[in-house]
Amino acid sequence: MSSVLVTGGAGYIGSVTVERLVGAGHSVVVLDNLSKGHRAAMHEGVPLVVGEIGDRELVAKTLTEHKVEAVIHFAAMSLVGESMEKPGDYYQNNVVSGIRLLEGMHAAGVDRIVFSSSAGVYGEPESVPISETNRTAPVNVYGDTKLIFERVLAWEAERTGLKHISLRYFNAAGASGRYGEDHRPESHLIPIALQVVAGRRPELTVFGDDYETPDGTCIRDYIDVRDLSDAHILALDALEKGRSGIYNLGNGEGWSVLNVIDSVERVTGRVVERKMGARRAGDPARLVASSSLAIRELGWKPEHPELDDMIEAAWAWMMEHPGGYTE
Ligand SMILES: NC(=O)c1ccc[n+]([C@@H]2O[C@H](COP(=O)([O-])OP(=O)(O)OC[C@H]3O[C@@H](n4cnc5c(N)ncnc54)[C@H](O)[C@@H]3O)[C@@H](O)[C@H]2O)c1
Description:
Radius of gyration: 19 Å
Bound molecules: nicotinamide-adenine-dinucleotide
Oligomer: single chain
Strand order of the largest sheet: 3-2-1-4-5-6-11
């Protein structure tokens, strides 16, 4: 069992991962500036250091004080639209501050990191399902920051011997029971559809129904947040054995926007009011992962591959937290 620093551990995927790390017997400390995270998403007994990943001295001090052996790095800005409006903030937070985090790790003698990358590194895919050897060509600043940081990790490995695993997630969905999705603003389809049925939004907009897909709407790959979190714990084991690498994490199956709406209606028994809108720039028709490398090399096995299961978990969490987290 290791001692782990989780950056962004008060956020959506971070909070579920902290819960599962503690469950697996790891000792955990969280570094989060609470720009998007929630105190109420902190797992009991886990220390929270409120601060910046870009604060090298704070990082080194936290790692040393808590005898940390490995870092799981979730903290980032992750709104695609916003990244095009404020590119400087995204390169600063996701790349420059990330480099400071690595410097803090180096100063404290910590040489293992799991990094939250994204399917956004691929841009418009040259072929589907997407494997790790597909061309990377981000179509927005957010995806570019993730790709650049993957490259930073590779250079840092040459320079210092850092061991690093980048996990390229497709779309995280669902909840753990205790911890769920409360992004403000929310940009993800499933919570938005659930907010519509819960009466918190009047309707959702389907961005384009003239794509070359069976029902004309975009197809995406959803992965249960519990399965996603488990992959991080497996990645820690792989790092300990000296492995570095890049892995896709998805279901290998795609669901269209209309499939997701159908599933939300099936699970909740309510109608999702929707309207058809124009395509959004830079939205590929189909993004589906091949995760065979993670399955083969990390021993990862998704336990919740059904979309209805993910939506059921997200709905249960939303019913228990009607206004999201309260602090
Ligand atoms: N949610 C998804 O579907 C998805 C898909 C692909 C990749 N990712 C990546 O996974 C990671 C986690 O995503 P999430 O949905 O849990 O996001 P989130 O916004 O819920 O969590 C991110 C956390 O990082 C913190 N943070 C941000 N900048 C910080 C900084 N400079 N210093 C300290 N803390 C900081 C925020 O307060 C927040 O708690 C992100 O890196 C994101 O880009 C998410």
